[in-house]
Amino acid sequence: MRPKILRFAVYFVLILAMILVFSFYKIYDAELFKIQNTEYSVTVVGLIISVIAFLFAFLTYVSIDSVNKITQMDGNVLENENYTTSFTSLISEYYMKDSHTFSDYVFKNLNNLFKRKSKTAVQFSNNLQHLIDLIVFLPYLYHSEGEKNLNQKKMRKILTTINKRKKTLLAVSNGNLVLITETVKLIESVLNYQEHVHTDEFKKTASLLEVRGNMLRNSVTQKVYYNYKGLLYQKKAVAVLQTKYEVPKGNIFTYSKLKLIKSRIASMDHNDKELFIIYLKEAKKAFDIAINQGKDDVMWEGFLKFNAARTMYLLSLVEVETAENWYTIMNEALAARYRINILIADILHNIDTTHLQEAFNHENNLANLVKINILLAEGQNITDRLGEYKYTAPFYQGLENDSILTVSSNKHFEIIKDLQKEVNHFFENLDVNEPVA
């Protein structure tokens, strides 16, 4: 029951009680009171006690009803196993043209949801799910360093608001709100990963392993959990190489770094290689679960299969049986990203290019360039997403003029420029007179 209604009910009962007592006094025979003073006093006291008892019973009922309405979880989206993200709605709602306008809208919306529209457990759950739906877009909030730092502070304030609301609900009822607790932990862990994954504080991202993922119910939440769990283990595997085998930090899926990794793996210590494999297999296991959950979601298919393909490629460097699998999964990721860009163009057919649309175009270009860099490092023919040959090893004639090497990128996708430079560097050092092996 809402506070205003509750106050009205209490005032009503108090006024009613006063009227009853006053009426009783007026109706009762005054002469009888003089004769039977004791009986009258007992009767009045009994009436007052009865009214007070009724008042307390009423308040108790109202309080219990109010608590039940606040904490009930029936029909909440976090427990809905058939829930899917409305990609069309998200693209239509977040149609801003630039990162600044986009970030302003995101934070304004999230602040409104968690400060004003999270009064009950069901409302809070729905708003947590909305944040999880958005989580894949949140890295696009951080372009320039100044903007990144400012937006990270804003996101931490939102997390503070979320935790305060969670604690308020738990203080009222701890029994049926475990799912909310795990969901909040998941959101915190993923945002922590996004913030620290490329810094020296990467160890902070391990908080993701504290989330009890088997308790998460709907497929979107599970996809988020297992995707970032896979990315965490992939990162830990790469850290083995970067920490002990002088592989430079940063993105490793460039031609020169991949060539270096191939040589380093050949000389790895047995224990380090075993640890490298363990982490990659844990990553693959997580991605497999996520892909199974996201098989009907074209947006998540593009992300998940791209992440899985990179993990499987690294595994192929130490296990021959995965050598072909990464290539197939990568092409499926590219096909999904191509489809999602077509869908976005259809959704926004009367609107100029939006910030999210631009980001998905960059994601598609990024995946294509990663595939090219891997195939260059492997000395294999370069194909399109359908597996058709485009450029033949070892000279890859025509690749140097491919439009993928001149596509633009924004500050968030600086890696695109690095991947382009690596391909150009390959051609600069290519000896066309070298005999083919």
Q: Give the termini distance in whole angstroms.
A: 79 Å
Number of helices, counting only DSSP H or I runs of 4 residues or more: 15
Helix-strand pattern = HHHHHHHHHHHHHHEEH
Largest sheet: 2 strands, antiparallel
Low-confidence stretches: 64-70
Instruction: From the alpha carbons, calculate the radius of gyration and give it in angstroms.
Output: 31 Å
Strand content: under 5%
Domain count:
3
Query: Would you count the extended β strands for me?
Result: 2
Strand order of the largest sheet: 1-2
Helix content: 55-70%
How would you sum up the global shape? Answer: elongated
Q: Return the average pLDDT rounded to an integer.
A: 83
Structure class: mainly alpha
Provide a descriptive summary of the structure in words.
The structure is a single chain. The protein has 437 residues and is mostly helical. The chain has three domains: 3-71; 90-202; 218-437, no CATH class. It is built from 15 helices and two strands. A two-stranded antiparallel sheet has the order 1-2. Helix 9 runs antiparallel to helix 11, helix 12 (298-316) packs antiparallel against helix 13 and helix 14 (355-378) runs parallel beside helix 15. The longest helix is centred in the N-terminal third of the chain and has 35 residues, at 37-71. The protein is elongated, with a radius of gyration of 31 Å. Mean pLDDT is 83; it is low at 64-70.
